[in-house]
Sequence to fold (467 residues):
Amino acid sequence: MNKYKTLAINTVVFAIGNIGSKLVAFLLTRLYTANLDNAGAFNTKEILEMCANLLIPVVSFSITDAIIRYGLDKNYEKRAVFSNAVLVLMIGSGGFILLSPLLLLYRDIRSYVVLLVGYIIISCFRQVSTQFARARNYVKFYAADGILCTFSLFIFNVIFIKWLQLGVTGFMLSVMFSDFLSGVTVWIIARHSRYFSLRYVDRELLEVMLRFSLPLIPTAILWIITGFSDRIFIRHIMTPTDAGVYGAATKIPNLISMVSTIFYQAWNMSAITENNKKGRSRFYAQVYDAYTSMLFLAAGFIIALDIPFSHFLIPTNKDPAYAMAYAYTPVLVIAVLMMCFNQFLSSVYTVSRQTQKSLYSSLVAAILNLVLNGILIAKFGVHGAIAATFTSYFVCYLIRIVDTRKLIPFYVNHTRFYVNLALLFVMCRLIHRFPGHYLPLFLILAVLALINIRSLLMTAKRILRRG
Fold:
């Protein structure tokens, strides 16, 4: 089977397992906005998610990335990789529990600290369990777990938030229960216990894994800062309501992230297992070409339907302030698009084990984002935060597109890239000037299709090619 077909099949399998969970998460935004008391409560939920996402890589030492990198590598013993990872997680969880009283210093989450600790540790456990299944090439089983986790998350949210009206507490319990059920189920069915024992711990490999994963901790934290700091600035410079509306508006651009994440899971496996150095540059160029074309088209489609998506996803019956969410979405879509391109380029650092370089570009993006948030939000409000987010992701892209191609040289059609980007900004402008006028938007979308269809068709031919 050729590598393009393998990548396509894995992408489809991951899509089956993930698209349901992503769409349910997308639809759950409606449940949250309709059942949480107001936009301020929604912002509290967002802050707790931010804290969890911030601390998960710290508690786990980002060891899940090392599981994929070394678990897929035939040169390393899988029992040693998994036992090392579980040992790291046990040590990290123990240290986190001891230090968790420090979370009480953050007033906004003080009432939820115990739940937050449980949320983080259980999420780390699920990640280790499911990623090791993926590293063992149980791709279909990994996808099936995504369906299970989706179903349980939806049921628990309905029970705790809609029926029991537990609000933010219900959200935390829903995630904890679904992650625990998923992690334990994967552990038992995949028989992970056969691969874990302290006698399998390999100190030399442990050092190698930690050298790979430790630079990813600040990298992950910096990306979260870049993604969430704007909400903190909006909350304190403006109001919690403004921050809640902005948080709700970010859910629609996450559709782009959904598409990218599904593909990235399959791509990361292909990138790691591609051992032909001569063909690697061509492989990267062709896949990146199709990937950017696919995402530009997806972004154009979401921007064109921004207003219908916003009205469906973010009802105003709980808080009329949500009516402004549609105005924030279009440029946020482009910002998330740039983040997705950065994610693809990070695979080069993973394959070449140059994770410290990923840290440098993330640091630049985070610092720039913080500075611009402080300047632009005070002057332009929420639109200033959006501009800061796009600029920081775009600068990171400029750094990475130069740096990564020194490690794995591959061709990039810069002209087409920037023409696509310009057309998306034109669509954003049209929505602000002429909301509800769809004809010019779909005309531009047709132009985007003409520009990008050739690379998608060429990739389809490679997938269908025998051998």
About this structure: The CA atoms of residues 129 and 349 lie 24 Å apart.
